[in-house]
Amino acid sequence: MEVPFYKMQGAANDFIVINNMKLRLSDEQLVSLTKQVCRQRFSVGSDALMALDFPQANADFRMKFYNADGTEAEMCGNGVRCIARFAYETGIAKQQMTIETKAGNVDCWRLDKRQYRVQINEPSVENFDLSFPGTDFLVDYVELGDPGVPHLVINYPQLKEITLADIKPLAKKLRLWDALDKGANVNFYAFDQNNEVILRTFERGVEDFTLACGTGAVSTAYVLKKKQLIKNDFITLHVLGGVLEVEENKQHFYLIGDTNIVTKGYICDEDLVI
Asked: Where in the sequence is the active site (predicted)?
């Protein structure tokens, strides 16, 4: 079976994007497809697979998002920007669109050929200054949307001086914290000399640090604004994959960033079984 696809990336989060309005694959088939084609070196390889599908609510289309291990996530900020461009360039949506996600509908705008702006779901849960057992620091917890995308946000001033390997054991413990029903993505942040944010995110499903996480960037910006640790309405976050911008406007939060179409064509993997 040949599967038409786009390979896209936003802030170095890379995705395989397919139009399931045409393919009509079941959820079980999408999970199977994801596990096979996201494998690095064995197939196309990517952080995740996104399937554009028919909406169930008042939206232009529905985004189904699967991590590389086949688990379905509520939504993905960088993924939304990429699938919005896919929808625009394939004639499915116009320059302003509403996208149905598992975490609720989100609005997205095409700013230019590559740059897209997405309004991220409002938090449904927030708990600040939680004590994590075995440490002397406090963590903040935010869920974006309902059901929410779970994120822990941790101020880690030493972030500029250490390697990711140094904090990976701690990230794994936080990711699987039994106080959280569904675990969480883990965001470590610090400020640089320009009062801009350095951010590193350990993601569920990938089970490692990734080059960027859009909802992690927004969750971190939300915590910083709520705790009055930053005053700017435009917040610059430096991630391993580049730079993300988060805008607060009338208490709504928007993720802004570039998209990149890396390649498009057909997945012709001879080992593929769906």
From this structure: 76 (proton donor), 213 (proton acceptor)
